[in-house]
Amino acid sequence: MKHRYTINFLFLLLAIFSNAQTRRIYGTVKHNNQPVANANVVELDANHRYLSHTKTDEWGKFTLTVTGEKTSIRVTHDDMTRFTSKIGNQENWNITLNKKPKSEKDKPIKKTYESTRLLAGIAQGRFIPQLVCVEQLSDTTFCLVIPVRVYSSVEDYPQGRKAVVQDYNSRIIATGNCIDDAIAQEGIPQRWDPIVRTTAIEGPTFTHEVRDFFCYPRFLFTKTELEYMIDHSSELSCFAVDTARGDNYWMYYPCKTFAKEMQKILNRMLK
Question: Distance between CA atoms of 255 and 120, rounded to whole angstroms?
Fold first, then answer.
C-alpha cells in the first residue's frame, strides 16, 4: 500500500510539472493592417521540430499552447515573408507579414512538362519513378519541381534549400536552389507508389492516422547545367535534395531514360 501511494504521488508531481511547462500565447496576424486568415502558426524547438501548431481565424487571430520559453514561433502564409521569433515570456503577439520581394519565381512560366522518366526513389528495395515537372522560365533557365515528403500539414519547404547533383565520385555536377517557399499539400503525387507512406504527427499528441503530405519545391537550373547532365548522364549518381528541415537529404536517382527524356523535353520547350 505504501508503494502505491508513493507511485501515485510521483505521477501527481509529474502532471503538475508538465502543466507548469505549458502555457498559452495569443495574437493577431496582419498584412497592410488587414487580417491574414488561415496563416500557419507553429512552435518549433531548437532543432526546428514542430511541437504544436494552429491556424489564424478569419480575423487573423490565433491561440497556441506552447511548451516553454526557449522555443520559437513561426508564422507563414502563401506569397508572404515568414515571421520567426523566440517566444521567451511574451504572451500577446501582433505580427505583420509582408509580400515577398520579386525574384526568379515571379517570372512567368513559358512551358511545363511532366515526366516519370527522369528521377526515381528507392523504397524497400524497389525503384520507384517520381513525377517531376520541368518548367521553362526563359531560354536559359528552368526549374525542376521535385516532390518532397513532409510530416505535417503546417510544414513548408523554405526558399534556399538545395538539390545537389553528384557523380559517382561524389563530385558536385550542379546545384539547384529552391526559388520560393513551397507549402505542404495533403495527398500523394500522381503515380506515387502506395508502399511509401508515413504516419503524421498532428499537434502536441501522436496520432496513428496515416496521412501523406508533400511539398513541391522549384529548383532552378540553367540550360547549360541540364545539357551537361544529358551529356554526362552515365556519370550521374544521385540528386541529393535537402529535407524541408534542412537536417538530412532525400535521395533521388536518374532513370536509365534520364538523358533521352530530358533532351526530348528541352527540344520541345525551345523549338
Answer: 6
Look-up of cell digits 511574451 = 90
246 sits in the region (left: phi over 0; alpha: psi -120 to 50; else beta) called left
The CATH architecture one would assign to domain 2-96 is Sandwich (2.60)
Distance CA 250, CA 262 (A): 21
d(CA 271, CA 268): 6
pLDDT digits 0-9 by tens, 37-68? 989 898 888 767 778 888 999 999 999 999 87
pLDDT per residue over 104-127, tens digit each? 555 677 889 999 999 998 877 888
119: β partners: 254
Under DSSP, the state recorded for 58 is: T
Cell of 67: 511548451
Q: Name the pairing type of β-strands 199-202 and 162-167.
A: unpaired
List Cβ neighbours of 19 (8 Å cut-off, separation of 6 or more).
none
The ranges assigned to domains in the chain are 2-96, 104-270
Q: Can you tell me the distance from the alpha carbon of 146 to that of 241, in angstroms, rounded to the nearest whole number?
A: 9
Look at residue 164 and give its three-state secondary structure: strand
Render 65-119 in DSSP notation, one character per residue.
Answer: EE--SSSEEEEE-TTB--EEEE-TT--EEEEE--BPPP-GGGSPP-EEEEESSSE
Segment (H or E) for 186: strand 185-186
